[in-house]
Amino acid sequence: MEATATQNTALQSKNIRYYINAFITIAIMFGFGYLPPIAPITPLGMKILGIFLALLYGWTFVDQIWPSILGMIALSLTGYAPLDTLMKSGFGNNTVLLMWGMLLIASLVDSAGVSKFIATYFISRKFVLGKPWILIFTFFFTIFLMLAMTSSVPTIVVGWGILYCILNQLGYKAGNPLSSYMVVGVVYSSLIGLALFPWKVLQMVVLGMFANTAGYQLEYSLYIALTLPISIAAITGYVLLGNRCGDLALWAGIACGAEIVVTSETGFDENEILDRLRDLDLIRKKKHAIIVISEKITDVHQLAKKISLNTGFSGRATVLGHIQRGGSPCPFDRMLASQMGEKAVDLLMQGIGGQCVAIRDNKIVAYPIEKALCMPAESRKPLTNLFERLG
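The structure corresponding to this sequence follows.
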């Protein structure tokens, strides 16, 4: 009952956001033109600008279909052109026809099982098993090479089709942060791929301008030698945006009674930490304080020195190694290990391999390893709230 109530609340909240965003879209589309014109924009220009801004907002937060149709109707009401003329110029445009064609091809590729085959091939390679960030980089780099050798629209449309198959096979749903991150990554990698080879129109124009300015022609081989490492670095930088996780620090902080836990979600503010330590020392009269910080946040040794200089505590930093992370198992650990071992043996007796045994909702379950490695992380907000209440 609790889960159903939570789902209903989430659905109602989503519906409310949809209607609010729809109202804002319509308000901008039909109301922006009544604002005083900003020179040199004419009153007609203000109406057209309002429709353009409304479409951007609607496409982003509402939908793609009905805001587009409503935008054509609104444009005809401004007197810019009759509705039939706008429909002809819109749906008869070469770019629109190209998009329809590419979507049709992508649909045929997907229905033929090609996208699923490619997706399965990607996630089953040995060098990506257990390394989700290697998988993500390999996928983005493939998209980058595809666009370098073809063009942007086919690469993005086909790339999205393959991406959706990968996400479906790994159990990710639309709207998940990783799904959004990957969708944007396809476009990002494609745009980078535009610059790799010098024989495309834009690059040839740029190289021609360079030759006129510098007085000599840049060799194609040198151009590729420069753009390839820069492109790889740019893709790597995007991949590394998502490689931080604060689960270990948060759980350890609650378990050991730490006074402060710092993760990528909480953010790191050195002055705030020093102020809290001074409060613990002077006001609450604590003799010690534990700070747990997840990796890649800050230099803990430098922070320890600043704590010693600016507070009443003597700061000491410890970076956990494999021995310090271990310890004697408690009865719960032994019971859990026995249950998970039994589950693993049962699966093997049934001829089922390649499974990850886990505990979920206090039940011993199993997932395919490929799926388990890339399952969406649950929100850590309840644990963060628990830690703050305990503090």
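The chain is about 65% helix and 5% strand.
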